[in-house]
Amino acid sequence: MRKKAVINPMNIDDDCFKWAILAKHVSVGHRNHVGKNYYNEEHRYDFSKLSSPTPISEIHIFERRNKGVSVNVYGLKPGKGGKVGKGEKDEKVGKESVVYPIRVIVNEKAEHFDLLVIEGSERMHYTYISNFSRLVRSQKTSHESRLFICKRCFTSFDEQVKKNKLRGNEALQQHMRLCGLNKPILPVMPEEGEVLGFNGWANMQRHPFAIYADFEALLEKHTERVGTSTDGIHAHHPMSYGYFVKAAVPIALMEKYDIPQVPVIYRGSESRDEVAKHFIASVTALAIRLGNPLKATNVPISMGVEELRVHNAKSVCDMCKLGFTETRWKVADHCHLSGRLRHTLCAPCNLKLTTPKFVPYFFHNLSKYDAHFIVTELGYDKESITVIPNTEENYISFSKRVMPDFSVRFLDSCRFMASSLAELAENLLTRPGDFEKFWETAKVFQPTDMPLVTRKGVFPYEYTDEWSKLEETALPPKHDFYSVLLEKHVSDEDYVHAMEVWRHFKCPNLGDYSDLYLKVDVLLLADVMENFRDLCMSTYNLDPVYYYTAPGFTFDAMLRYTGVKLELLIDYDMVLFVEQGIRGGLVQASERYCRANNPKTPGYDAEKPPSWLVYQDCKYTSQQLVRVRHGRIHTLRRVQVVRGRTLELLDGMTEKSNVGRVFEVDIAYPDNLHDAHNDLPFLPRNAVPPGSKVNKLMATLERKERYIFHYRNLKQAIANGLIVEKVHRVLEFQQSGWLVKYIDLNTEMRKKAGNAFERDFFKLLNNAVFGKTMECVRNRISIELVSCPRRMRKLINKPTFKHVTTYTENLAAVSLQMSDIRFFKPIYVGFAVLEISKELMYDYHYNVMRRHYNDSIRLLFPDLSNPYGGFLQGP
User: Fold this and answer.
1) Of 518, 509, 431, 442, nearest to 476 (Cα)?
2) 126 bridge partner residues
3) Which residue in 718, 641, 736 sits closest to 682, CA to CA?
4) Cβ-Cβ contacts under 8 Å for 601 (sequence gap 6 or more)
5) Is the dihedral of CA 496, 499, 503, 505 positive or negative?
6) Cβ(72)–Cβ(103) below 8 Å
7) What are the start-end ranges of the H helices in 316-457?
8) How far are the Cα atoms of 219, 226, 480 from residue 483, in angstroms, in the given order?
9) How many CB atoms lie within 10 A of CB 319?
């Protein structure tokens, strides 16, 4: 308001949306107070069917009932030190408040309105933006020159002449072509010179505590219909829980703080919610007992003679690898819980190794199962709950604060190891009878028990549908182990195992058997995860319990191992440019049906020429894929007609060039190439195919406009006959093989792997690095779990409020629209890897298979993920 860019009609009713719209037509000098001046203008528009007050979600009704009218809505939030709020008499806005887009249409109508919503303590309030540029420009610059501002993201363009770049309205129109493809958002960009490097130094110390837990449930028969096409089979109600605390602290400390050293198993009564409530109470009490030693204990360092000698002999820091100086003096870093020497560090690095402020609870399949029991009970008090959502119903992780600066963090081990617990436990058996890797299980059970407790147990889940069955004194017959959901019986081998366990441990009833089953599951999870932690610590010197997923872990491991400093994109236009080039991996079926006439298979017809189906798995080496960009990124603008000749900027460029480029071009696909390229056309593009509503990546033979290429793909397309008609823009960057070191490390570790899990894990780490480099931050969602009524009211009154899901009378999940997005991901790396992998696939088809077999081979189902499927016709 102080900028005289906003008109705020002072009203005493709930129709502020109406008055904000009409403010545009009220004469200057009479706009501040709603009265006759506003009532005289009500005839202009149809405000019927709108609620009072009007939520943002109903504005489309107003637009539909008033042809030729469009409305944008913007919000206001505190910036640094700023406050936004509605007082009794006026809206008081902090000096550094930030405007952000909430609802922005793509094409403004003849009569357009920009509204600013101000968040109040009880409701939100609409005002009319009379001068959009004046309102927003102070967020962009302190200069007085004319600005052209995008209303969707606030990217601005001035009229200053810049070499090789558009300016003013011309630059804005080019920007809008890509910006209009995305939802309106306020992008938060890195500062100039900011880089992405490893900073997870605290994650290099092993967390002193890790807790492994599981629930068992009664499967009450359920006959209600869920949705229009789903029938509920069972309702799951927790009947017991178990957990085991893995502690790397002295036993005396565990005894002092009453930390359990054996698995804790609790089985409930017939109360439906009692088990989950008991679990939360137990978790909270235990977390406080664990947090106290972490915060209060500081055992003095204790070094042996040899440790002291090694420490004194070191001349460089174990972490940063820099030499010790007067300002980076040598420090003996030690564990404050045990006094044991951990590292020889410089003083700055020593300060980075902070004490953990959380205790991790791991469940196998937390996100899809156990979380449903836990989340609903977290509203027992008003302490904060944080959540990392994957979807509105599936959480990657969630945390509950139990004391100041300390929380319980619930994590899913499946997000590190996607295999079943049975398969993971089997991988720990290097040979029959060798239980060396079952450390925690061996501490609880006798040697004679080990053959029975080092594999996943068997339990009649669906048979156990009521509490009374836990009192049965005999193992149910084999047919009661049948799973309706899976539609299969338990195997004879598994049932024999269940009977052996029952007899060996002399189970008095099914309840005792279920407790044993639960204890074994918890200990197996502990052994699997502790072996996994050891593997990660020995290979990458990082503890995975500090991370939420394997992709997050491997990306940090890559940054630490390579030492690379990745330049971040500071220009939102560059982000849009690279995003447009990320099209995904090509997967298609080029033919509907194909049958081979193979002489070595039944049904061979000697009267017809022989033919074969070829299925090949193509592997990309690190040297092929990882020479990708890392720094000195800047844009050029070239416009030229280049029919019949190679582009000037491609001259001399090879896959080993230190400089790489990304081109935006118009490119033609000559008719004479269509038959030859029909199996696998170049230039796949995202579009909605005929008869569909879903965007697909399709390889077509059409001419492409403003197609974004990596230079290697463009060279390949030109070499195969495609004709570039015009170059619009070029992104130039420095590139090197900085990722080779990490890819090769995991490849070597995979060769040395002793089981299937380790082989798959090291492959996953390489693949996940790629996925993390092209992570789409736009897909993130904002959800807050709320147990405080005051906080709930505040969130509901936010203009970014979407909807609320009530779990219990004390807990609800509030879904919010993102007001801004931080673009701090090196998506250019993922783009380059994806494009180069396409180049290799096309090269293999056209320059290897086609060159060798000519027209005798047809491509059936290309897949960027590796397989090459073809049909080979014999002579």
Assistant:
1) 509
2) 117
3) 718
4) none
5) positive
6) yes
7) 347-352, 371-374, 421-427, 439-444, 450-453
8) 11, 20, 8
9) 21
pTM, two decimals, is: 0.89
- Give the separation between CA 275 and CA 268, rounded to whole angstroms: 5
Which helix (H) or strand (E) element contains residue 345? strand 341-346
Cα–Cα distances in Å, from 12 out to 9, 15, 35, 601, 739? 10, 9, 11, 85, 63
C-beta neighbour count of 442 within 10 angstroms: 18
CA distance 431 to 754: 11
What gap in Å lies between CA 428 and CA 326, rounded to an integer?
A: 48
Question: Taking Cα atoms as reference points, which of 352, 309, 839 lies closest to residue 625?
Answer: 839
Helix then strand then coil, % of the chain, to nearest 5: 35, 25, 40
Q: What gap in Å lies between CA 80 and CA 829, rounded to an integer?
A: 32
- Alpha-carbon distance of 716 to 65, in angstroms, equals 53
The pLDDT, as a whole number, for residue 218 is 92
Retrieve residue 795's tokens: 């969130």
The residue type at 830: G
Q: Look-up: residue for tokens 């960057």?
A: 733
For 675-689, give one letter per residue: b (16+ CB within 10 A) or e. eebebbbbbbeeeee
Looking at the DSSP bridge assignments, the partners of residue 389 are 395
Distance between CA 377 and CA 268 in Å, rounded? 16
What does the chain come to in residues? 875
**CA pair distance 713, 836, nearest whole angstrom:** 7
pLDDT digits (tens, 9 = 90+) for 226-270: 555 556 678 889 999 999 999 988 888 888 889 999 999 999 987
Structure tokens that stand for 343 in this block: 């590292």
Angle in degrees, CA 86, 87, 93, rounded to 5: 55
Scored b (16 or more CB within 10 A) or e, 718-757 reads: beeebbbebbbbbbbbebbebbbebbebbeebbeebebeb
Alpha helix ranges (H) inside 336-420: 347-352, 371-374
539-577 per-position pLDDT tens digit: 999 999 999 999 999 999 999 999 999 999 999 999 999
Contact status, residue 612 vs residue 596, Cβ threshold 8 Å? yes
Coil, strand, or helix at residue 268? coil
With a CB cutoff of 8 Å and minimum separation 6, the contacts of 286 are 211, 245, 259, 260, 359
> In terms of C-beta distances under 8 Å and separation of at least 24 residues, what long-range contacts does 602-610 make, across chains too?
609/873, 609/874, 609/875, 610/874
Task: Compute how many other C-beta atoms are within 10 angstroms of the C-beta atom of residue 819.
Answer: 18
3-state secondary structure of 680: coil
The residues with which 186 forms a beta bridge, in sequence order, are: 820
Neighbours of 331 (CB within 10 A): 19
Run of H or E including 518:
helix 510-540
Distance CA 453, CA 441 (A): 8
DSSP state of 388: E
Q: Cis peptide before 432, with omega less than 30 degrees from 0?
A: no
Map tokens 């002999």 to a residue. 313
- Stated as kind and residue range, the H or E segment containing 617 is strand 611-617
Q: Does residue 805 contact residue 551 with C-beta atoms inside 8 Å?
A: no
Measured CA to CA, the distance from residue 686 to residue 697 in angstroms comes to: 4
Place of tokens 């447009």: 580
How remote is the C-alpha of 460 from its chain's centroid?
Answer: 36
585: which 2 tokens? 């991996």
Task: Answer for the pair 448, 442: CB distance below 8 angstroms, yes or no.
Answer: no
Residue 600: what are its φ and ψ, rounded to 5°? -95, 10
pLDDT at site 20: 94
Provide the pLDDT for residue 523: 97
DSSP-assigned letter for residue 488: B
- The mean pLDDT value for 629-656 works out to 61
Write out the two tokens for 568: 């971040």
Is 768:742 a contact under the CB 8 Å cutoff? no
Among 36, 56, 68, 38, which Cα is nearest to 184's? Answer: 56
